[in-house]
Amino acid sequence: MRIAQIAPLHEAVPPKLYGGTERVVSYLTEALVELGHSVTLFASGDSKTSAKLDAVWPQALRLDPLIRDTMAPHMLLLEQVWRRSKEFDVLHFHIDYYPFSLFSRQLIPYLTTLHGRLDLPELQPLFNIFQNVRVVSISDNQRNPLPQANWLSTVYHGLPIDLLMPCTDIKPSYLAFLGRISPEKRLDTAIRIAQQCAMKIKIVAKLDKSDRTYYEEQIKPLMSLPHVEYIGEISETEKAKFLSGAHALLFPIDWPEPFGLVMIEAMACGTPVIAFKCGSVPEVIENGVSGFVVEDELSAVVAVNQLHTLSRAGVRAAFEARFTSKIMAQHYVHVYEKLLHYSHRTIMREVTVR
């Protein structure tokens, strides 16, 4: 099958540091190539891939200090994909609703995976108009605000099976927080949970400019507490050691998290996840197997004290059974085939399985 993967241009594919969507696009692209498909990746020029790369912009927009209008490169991206669209069986977008208008007016089958939060009122009129656009959710819970959308399927994220492995020579000695410093991620709650458990917490987190005021007012004063260690951002190669060294990953969100890639990153390392019952959490975490799904801070503290009942090998096994990139790619191939069937189209090129 000839497949176009269209990534955002904000980060490279894969991103050098933080970047959930671009990371998933990378894992999916590589897994599709491994399955024998012909894949073209539309992304920034500093991306690394075994697929064919169409470099729409020289480097990731986040790393270009001269970029003031991030929309302009994305309009160029849409035009470039449109001009080449007849070369593909399927166009797979990962750039929200940007392609809806233009690509609804052409015949090549396309779909969009929605990676972000959908509980925004301004999205309602958009999806009322584009009810025929086929979209994929990354959790069933993510769909709730937009029942009128034309949902093709839910496909959970996946990681390469050997990307993050348990470091069995490291003895867990702290609780971990990994993600972004923002109000909905509730780093402050994670710090309080660790304090109530009399345990150290290590924090690996990205801070966006938009969250700087929140950080200065709400989080920075907590960073000087004796049980808190703020590391900052780390690379992909450092994650296994960081997560393997944790008794558990704390994920005390209070927003409808569409998926939460960090949860399966922890699971890949055999590290249990203690997460608040919001958004996708109950779909990702098997309570009592890969971690604990809790209601509040008090129950999170209780869960920390119950970690000895979980098997880290069992946590890793739960990851391998559900959340590898090969499983994700296989699910997407099924979605592509369904899309082609709906569009009454045949595949232009046979698949050669490696």
Number of strands: 13
CATH architecture descriptor of the largest domain: 3-Layer(aba) Sandwich
Low-confidence stretches: none
Sheet of most strands? 7 strands, parallel
- The secondary structure category is alpha/beta
Return the domain count: 2
Here the CATH topology of the largest domain equals Rossmann fold
- Give the mean pLDDT: 94
The arrangement of helices and strands along the chain is: EHEEHEHEHEEEHEHEHEHEHEHHH
Instruction: Name the CATH superfamily assignment of the largest domain.
Output: Glycogen Phosphorylase B
| Share of residues in strands | 15-25%
Whole-Å distance between the termini?
14 Å
CATH class of the largest domain: Alpha Beta
- Helix content estimate: 25-40%
Order of neighbouring strands in the sheet with most strands: 3-2-1-4-5-6-7
Give the overall shape: globular
Our count of helices gives 12
Verbal overview:
The chain has about 350 residues and is an alpha/beta fold. It folds into two domains: about 1-160 and about 325-340, 3-Layer(aba) Sandwich (Rossmann fold), CATH 3.40.50; about 175-320, Rossmann fold (3-Layer(aba) Sandwich), CATH 3.40.50. Helix content is about 35%, strand content about 20%. The chain is built from twelve helices and 13 strands. It has helices at about 20-35, 70-85, 100-105, 125-130, 185-195, 210-220, 235-245, 260-270, 280-285, 295-305, 310-320, 325-340, and strands at about 1-5, 40-45, 50-55, 90-95, 110-115, 135, 150-155, 175-180, 200-205, 230, 245-250, 275, 290-295. A seven-stranded parallel beta sheet has the order 3-2-1-4-5-6-7. Strand 12 (about 275), helix 9 and strand 13 form a beta-alpha-beta unit. The protein starts with a strand and ends in a 12-residue tail after the last helix. The mean pLDDT is about 95.
